Amino acid sequence: MALASPAQAQNIDILMGSLFSQQGPDYIGHTSVSREDVPAASALERKFLIVDFRFDQNPGHEARQARVHTICMTMLRDRDLMQRLTRRGYDMVSVAFDRKSQYDCL
Asked: Does 2 map to a domain?
């Protein structure tokens, strides 16, 4: 697995930080994962972005699901972000609130 270069990471962090600056939970960073073991012609995702958020207080299951939906829809509606991620080869974006679980957006 390969990780994004620092310059690319900073650009995504700036975009994500500005996109989620007013809404909780807090955006804390991202991880870029590239699956070199998957052939380029495969239907499986080769490169994906995991965006990490943290809550001040751990919400219940329904509130957590609502936040996943809000975060995913906010990212999907941002054309500039989607174009940048597409140009960088991302096949999928996931949201994580802890190290135990992540939720796929697209």
From this structure: no
Q: Taking Cα atoms as reference points, which of 2, 1, 9 lies closest to residue 84?
A: 9
Domain that holds residue 28: 7-17+24-36+45-99
Residue 8 CA to its chain's centroid (Å):
14
pLDDT per residue as tens digits for the range 33-65: 887 776 667 665 678 889 999 888 878 889 889
pTM of structure: 0.75
Strand order in the sheet with 92-96: 26-34, 47-54, 92-96, 102-104
Q: Using H for helix, E for strand and C for coil, what is the string for 7-60?
A: HHHHHHHHHHHHHCCCCCCEEEEEEEEECCCCCCCCCCCCEEEEEEEECCCCCC
In the chain, how many domains are there? 1
